[in-house]
Specification:
This protein is globular. About 30% of the residues are buried. It contains five helices and no strands. About 90% of the residues lie in helices and about 0% in strands. The chain starts with a helix and ends with a helix.
Length: about 100
C-alpha cells in the first residue's frame, strides 16, 4: 500500500510539473494558462513529490524509503515523458 501511496503522488506531481510549462499547456490544453495558475501547478507538483518522499520515508524508513522514492520518481517521470511523446495518439483515443 505504501508503494501505491508513493507512486501516485510521484506520477501526479510530474504531470502537474509538465502542465506548468507554457509549451506543454499549449500541447495538451490548446491554450496557455495564466501565470498564477502555472505557478500554482508548479508548486503543487513539487509539493506532491515532497509528500511522496515523506510517505516513502515514514513507510519504509528513511534509508530504504529514499531508495523507493527515487525508484518511483523514475517511473513517474518515464510515464509522464511517454505520455508527452505519444500525446497525439492519446488525444486521438480520447476523441473516439
Amino acid at each position: 500500500m505504501t508503494h501505491l501511496l508513493t507512486a501516485l503522488p510521484c506520477l501526479l506531481g510530474f504531470a502537474l510539473l509538465l502542465l506548468a510549462m507554457a509549451r506543454h499547456q499549449q500541447d495538451w490544453l490548446k491554450r496557455k494558462l495564466p501565470p498564477p495558475t502555472g505557478r500554482l501547478l508548479r508548486i503543487s507538483g513539487f509539493a506532491l513529490l515532497t509528500a511522496a518522499f515523506a510517505i516513502a520515508g515514514l513507510g519504509f524508513g528513511w534509508t530504504y524509503g529514499t531508495l523507493v522514492w527515487c525508484g518511483w520518481l523514475s517511473v513517474g517521470s518515464a510515464i509522464t515523458l511517454t505520455a508527452q511523446t505519444n500525446r497525439e495518439r492519446i488525444l486521438a483515443l480520447l476523441r473516439r
